[in-house]
Amino acid sequence: MYPEAFPESVVFTASAPAKVILCGEHAVVYNQPAIAIPVSDLRVTVRIQRHQSGAPGLRLIAGDLERFLPSNVSFHEEQAVTDALELTVRLVLETLKCSLPGLTATIESQIPVASGLGSGAAVSAALGRALSAALGNPLDNPTLNTIVYEVEKIHHGTPSGIDNTVIVYEQPIFFVRNHPIQTFTAAAPFTLLIADTGRGALTKVAVGDVRRLYETEPERIKPILSAIGDLVTLARGAIENGDLTRLGALMTQNHAYLQQLTVSSDELDQLVRAALDAGALGAKLSGGGRGGNMIALVMPENKSAVRAALVRSGAKYVYETLVG
Ligand code: MEV
After folding, report:
1. How far is ligand 1, taken at its centre, from the CA of residue 26, in Å?
2. N or C: which end of the chain has fewer CB within 10 A?
């Protein structure tokens, strides 16, 4: 079934944010809690328009890259789909039980790739949103979240579901795998600096390495994962009580545990050290690790000094986000 036609002048636009993991990454894969925060100033935007000329199907344009998905993209049941964009489109079509008319989707992203900021999940979420709207049936968040989770398996192997959830719902979450989403309220807003090492790293590789450690040394690794879970619960309490000094200490402690899980790197450790020396209340890697981004909890009076220290210590970009 083809959806109803709409004029070529109509543009369906949807977007999705980046994310940071405030605490609990990796342990969350093993059913421990974690806290994730959307970064609404860094976004992926997708614009979809109808094109009457040429074959029915979806022309996807992302920067210099252009590709075409034919209208029957959803009917290759026998083929495993290993491409995230194609899988997103296919799952949307299967959910809505329709085929592609002639459409052009333009994807613009401000989120660096392979940097722990959830760019893959944000692209899927924005594309799923814009495409379903263009097909006349905008997906609700729970359905979109299920689709983006399926696509995340391509990027992450065994994702916990935290990245797709924080990105689709775009609100701070206290997340436990396979449990309903919990939100929370910060008693006092706080600022995070997000610093990019400039080194790309694949979450899938880091998650796989932690899995191997877990399997070969369970007696050493399991207590580290539980300790991370415990500190995440304490961090939530600190946020709800406005105790930012405590929150910062817990973040820094979390970084030490992540080092023990072997997912930090020299660049990340250097940026964490620089942020703490410059007065940050806490600092840690964020996301899969091994590269990508770190976060620092800062106060208005030391924000500039911490930012400058991060740049001096090799940060390629420093972003800022206000939580609460
Ligand atoms: C990546 O943002 C967070 C990890 O815990 C992986 C996951 O939860 O799927 C490293």
Report:
1. 5
2. N
